[in-house]
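Whiteboard transcription, Tuesday session. T.W. wrote the structure tokens on the left side:
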């Protein structure tokens, strides 16, 4: 995989129309990993929701968390999920658990050789991949072994 995961022709990620995930995308532009936390019960959650998964409170806040986690699961797809990725397979997708944020899990790409050994429980860290030249600049969160 090259240094940039999204080649020309891929649709750029954009915040949801309702604006719920705007704090996440603004955080990635600053090189910060932002997730939701309930102001009522303290529960961490991902993906973004309007209410707490645990206590149903609407007192949801965004907090910066450390971009470090552990591989909970992984997969190495060989098929392209979009025509622009036709020459990009295989790649490694990981489900990363964040122990310091209530063990929430995030999906992302694992940077490095396509045939690298991946072990459940191995430590990874977030890598922020800016796309400053896009019509609307954005930053992706990728993962690499720490």
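and on the right, the sequence the group agreed on:
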């Amino acid at each position: 995989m090259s240094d940039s995961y999204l080649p020309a022709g891929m649709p750029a990620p954009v915040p949801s129309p309702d604006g719920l995930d705007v704090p996440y995308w603004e955080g990635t532009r600053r090189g910060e990993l932002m997730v939701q936390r309930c102001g009522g019960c303290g529960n961490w959650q991902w993906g973004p929701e309007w209410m707490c998964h645990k206590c149903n409170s609407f007192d949801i806040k965004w907090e910066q968390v450390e971009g470090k986690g552990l591989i909970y699961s992984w997969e190495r797809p060989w098929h392209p999920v979009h025509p622009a990725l036709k020459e990009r397979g295989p790649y490694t997708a990981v489900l990363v658990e964040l122990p310091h944020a209530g063990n929430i899990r995030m999906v992302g790409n694992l940077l490095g050789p396509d045939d690298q050994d991946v072990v459940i429980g191995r430590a990874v860290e977030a890598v922020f991949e800016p796309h400053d030249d896009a019509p609307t600049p954005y930053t992706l969160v990728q993962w690499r072994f720490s």
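Someone added at the bottom: Helices lie at 22-29.
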